[in-house]
Amino acid sequence: MRLATQNSDRFLTAFNRIDHRLRDIIGAKDFLPFYRLVDQAKKKDVLVRKYEDDLRSYADLRNAIVHHRTSMEYVIAEPHVDVVEKIELMDSTLAKPTLVGQMFRKKVYVFQEKDSLKYVLKVIRSRRYTQFPVYSNNQFKGLVTTVGITNWLATTMAGNQLPKHIPTMHDILLHEKNKVNYKFISRYITIYEAEEIFKQGVERGRRFEALLITEHGKPQEKLIGMITPIDIMKVD
Q: Is residue 146 over pLDDT 90?
């Protein structure tokens, strides 16, 4: 008979760990109901906001298990194994969320401001990139996108004149309508915080084409990774 209660035991163990995690997030020293913990913790932690609805549902299930348990051997509300696995995954994610430096660290293809558009187009054709960090030696200058290239082309064609010189990345940067279409982030922030940055950018009318990863989120540091909106859509 004890075997039948294992799911509820696993559920309560994960739930209690989450409860402690929420208390740590807000620094709670006194008792607070779980719903209030969620309300306060979601203001400080993006993952709590992400899981808010599920956490509230699990609180109801937890109450059904605890308050309707007729004995240690019999539980009226026995969670399904899928529910148990989901709350255990949530527990482990809250305890140790994946960092952007873990998931998105990679060698980033960068261009110099003096590189010609002809050269860049060859790279686009071979590598299928759509965002390109541009530097002047080691100094970051901006992010070139295929939209910026299209804007340059449209402006050039509208004048019915060929450019007097071979266009460079410097010229293309001047045609990026959104001059700050990027944001530098530290490799130590979570992938969920990165997702929130993209969302907040859209909400504020400032769409980011890429998040550029360095050690501490400073432009003068070595670029060690990059996240695009397409990349972040693949995050669960």
A: no
Residues 6+ apart with CB under 8 A from 77: 8, 61, 64, 65, 68
SS3 (DSSP) at 60 = helix
Q: Which two tokens stand for residue 215?
A: 């050690």
Instruction: Give the model's pLDDT for residue 160.
Output: 66
Give the H or E element holding residue 38: helix 34-41
Q: In Å, how far from its chain's centre is CA 171?
A: 31
**236 pLDDT tier (thresholds 50, 70, 90):** low
Each residue's pLDDT tens digit, 52-90: 999 999 999 998 888 766 555 555 667 889 999 999 999
φ and ψ at 210, to 5 degrees? -165, 150
How many C-beta atoms lie closer than 10 Å to residue 62's C-beta?
Answer: 22
Residue type, 40: Q
Residue 73: what pLDDT?
A: 55
Q: What is the pTM of this model?
A: 0.82
Strand 111-112 versus strand 131-136 pairing type: parallel
Q: Which residues contact 190 (CB under 8 A, 6 or more apart)?
A: 46, 47, 97, 98, 99, 100
DSSP 215: S
CA distances from 203 to 41, 104, 206 (A): 22, 24, 7
Beta strands in the chain (DSSP E): 111-112, 131-136, 139-145, 182-186, 210-214, 225-227
